[in-house]
């Protein structure tokens, strides 16, 4: 008996050592102690199967949290399930282990998606069974909620929308059976998750998304919760999640005007979240959630011409993202590891630590845990850079746009697999840059490439429509007919689909109007452009689109006071955005109109011939000055070696 007693003492000692190491924040020490016990569980450190299983689950938890050794964690968790299967009264340890196992399979990618479904299904069945046996035990209710959400997430990754909706509805049913008509945080959590599912399903092109029903359910759940829970710090993260999701829905609808008050809500909610209580369920890490909120705020104000405010939001969002990527040791654009200067000289060590750190500089160096943690920040960074390019192109800062577009190319070339879903966005930005530089054939090719890589029907339509617009500028005999051939299927699909966003509908009308104008079908062109203008004014609020519609319509109609007002409005909208190309085009229209229509004063009274001539001459001088400003800037861009090199790289496309 003495050797067995000694073995059990060794086991207890190793467990105590692991606990002390963990309390001292020495995770690696704790892992070594647990690994030693596990390796000798049947010999020198003899312990019961339940103890060994518990140590394996604990060791796996530490490995997942502090290391990149997901394979070793998977081995421990799978072995723990084998050990626990014949044992009774170990149900909570089993569901905990299955939860970690499902998380590990998710981290390891699509290769393990079936295993993830299996682990999640076993955990859900066990949680439901234990809840039925012990309904008064709140632990099993929480495990049931956990597995419903995990199962829904697994279904959404596979675009199994019916399965996802079913699991979320089942969870919501359990919540409401417990809380009846009173509000709760868990009801809001499930309702917001259902809204996220509906938005993702809508983006995929499915008509059975039930977005409006899901949005209504989330609104009602939020109202009930706020009437029951009066402590804001307990609900701050959940309210933040809810408002971000609702804003995302409005932007997906193509209706930023409906979200005009949301940026101010985000600002106050971010302050609340910083001082809020920690919650059991976390949607995104706080920095990622803050970056997303700032990015959405920029997308709300950008169409309305508030470009400086949009850049402020985007700069803040990028700072959040870059800081977290640095903390993770990930270089978003690859390259050499940063060199830190010290008193002794240069070192590759991080400036906050005394030890050297390993930096992730390419896809091959991206381990499972780092990839999982970095992915949301890398995604957000691409989207933020895309918006910065849009602002720069609109405000006639082509040098900035070319620089940032090349940064996006760096990212997709450095992490092609991680960012594969956003490859179409990089191609889209390259197309816009080529278009701005007057390389319309190259722009059309890049837009077509973007459409072919698009992960959603909505983005594919935008790529197709942009390709058609670039074709119209090529000045070839059949460019208008080719553009219409591209546009017609998109317009037809918008008539058949109820879920097409307002922005997509406006862009399709605008593009078809431009093509019809090129064909000389002016009545049809005026009709399409007029409808696009009305929709833009009522819902989209995109000043650049409004200015373009106004300018094109006044170019079709005969000179009159009405067309003069359109040209003046187009000029005013473009001037606010510093959109010099549209300003020049609007001034050309204004001078054409002033030649045919006698100028008037502020009270609509005709000016004297001398004053009228002075006004015409002043507008001509202004047009010439703006045209020279445009020409000089474009010359400086085309003669700048760095800009030419960047443009050539974008024209060449993403290199494998």
TrEMBL record:
Belongs to the SCC4/mau-2 family. GO terms for biological process: cell division; chromosome segregation; mitotic sister chromatid cohesion. It is found in: Nucleus. It comes from Ostreococcus sp. 'lucimarinus'. Transmembrane segments: none annotated. Keywords: Cell cycle, Cell division, Chromosome partition, Mitosis, Nucleus. Pfam families: Cohesin_load. This is Uncharacterized protein. It comes from the Eukaryota. One of its GO terms (cellular component) is nucleus. The lineage of its organism: Eukaryota, Viridiplantae, Chlorophyta, Mamiellophyceae, Mamiellales. The keyword Cell cycle applies.
């Amino acid at each position: 008996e003495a050797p067995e007693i000694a073995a059990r003492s060794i086991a207890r000692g190793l467990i105590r050592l692991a606990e002390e190491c963990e309390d001292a924040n020495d995770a690696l020490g704790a892992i070594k102690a647990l690994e030693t016990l596990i390796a000798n569980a049947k010999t020198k450190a003899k312990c019961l199967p339940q103890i060994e299983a518990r140590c394996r689950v604990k060791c796996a938890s530490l490995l997942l949290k502090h290391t990149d050794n997901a394979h070793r964690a998977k081995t421990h968790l799978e072995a723990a399930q084998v050990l626990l299967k014949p044992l009774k009264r170990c149900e909570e340890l089993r569901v905990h282990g299955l939860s970690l196992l499902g998380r590990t399979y998710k981290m390891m990618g699509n290769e393990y998606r079936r295993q993830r479904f299996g682990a999640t299904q076993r955990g859900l069945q066990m949680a439901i069974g234990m809840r039925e046996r012990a309904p008064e035990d709140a632990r099993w209710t929480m495990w049931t909620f956990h597995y419903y959400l995990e199962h829904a997430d697994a279904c959404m990754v596979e675009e199994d929308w019916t399965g996802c909706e079913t699991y979320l509805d089942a969870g919501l049913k359990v919540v409401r059976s417990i809380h009846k008509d009173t509000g709760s945080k868990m009801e809001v959590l499930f309702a917001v998750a259902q809204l996220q599912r509906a938005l993702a399903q809508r983006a995929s092109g499915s008509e059975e998304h039930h977005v409006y029903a899901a949005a209504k359910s989330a609104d009602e759940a939020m109202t009930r919760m706020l009437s029951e829970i009066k402590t804001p710090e307990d609900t701050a993260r959940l309210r933040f999640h809810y408002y971000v999701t609702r804003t995302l829905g409005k932007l997906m609808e193509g209706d930023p005007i409906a979200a005009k008050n949301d940026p101010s809500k985000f600002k106050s909610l971010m302050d609340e979240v910083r001082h809020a209580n920690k919650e059991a369920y976390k949607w995104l890490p706080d920095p990622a959630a803050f970056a997303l909120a700032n990015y959405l705020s920029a997308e709300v104000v950008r169409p309305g011409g508030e470009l400086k405010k949009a850049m402020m939001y985007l700069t803040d969002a990028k700072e959040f993202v870059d800081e977290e990527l640095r903390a993770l040791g990930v270089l978003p654009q690859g390259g050499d590891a940063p060199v830190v200067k010290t008193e002794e000289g240069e070192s590759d060590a991080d400036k906050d630590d005394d030890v050297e750190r390993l930096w992730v500089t390419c896809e091959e160096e991206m381990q499972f845990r780092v990839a999982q943690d970095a992915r949301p920040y890398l995604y957000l960074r691409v989207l933020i850079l895309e918006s910065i390019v849009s602002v720069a192109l609109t405000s006639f800062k082509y040098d900035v746009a070319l620089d940032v577009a090349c940064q996006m190319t760096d990212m997709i070339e450095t992490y092609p697999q991680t960012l594969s879903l956003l490859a179409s966005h990089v191609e889209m930005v390259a197309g816009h840059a080529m278009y701005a530089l007057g390389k319309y054939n190259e722009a059309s090719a890049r837009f077509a490439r973007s459409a072919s890589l698009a992960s959603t029907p909505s983005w594919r339509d935008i790529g197709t429509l942009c390709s058609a617009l670039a074709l119209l500028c090529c000045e070839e005999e059949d460019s208008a007919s080719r553009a219409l051939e591209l546009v017609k299927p998109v317009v037809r699909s918008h008539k058949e689909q109820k879920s097409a966003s307002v922005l997509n509908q406006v862009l399709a009308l605008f593009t078809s109007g431009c093509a019809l104008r090129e064909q000389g079908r002016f009545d049809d062109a005026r009709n399409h452009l007029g409808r696009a203008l009305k929709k833009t004014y009522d819902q989209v609020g995109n000043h650049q689109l409004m200015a373009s519609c106004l300018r094109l319509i006044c170019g079709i109609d005969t000179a009159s006071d009405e067309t003069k007002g359109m040209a003046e409005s187009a000029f005013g909208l473009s001037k606010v955005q510093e959109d010099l190309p549209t300003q020049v085009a609007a001034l050309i229209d204004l001078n054409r109109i002033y030649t045919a229509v006698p100028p008037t004063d502020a009270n609509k009274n005709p000016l004297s011939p001398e004053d009228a001539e002075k006004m015409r001459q002043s507008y001509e001088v202004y047009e010439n000055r703006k045209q020279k400003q445009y020409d000089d800037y474009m010359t400086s861009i085309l003669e700048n070696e760095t800009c030419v090199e960047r443009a050539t790289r974008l024209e060449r496309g993403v290199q494998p």
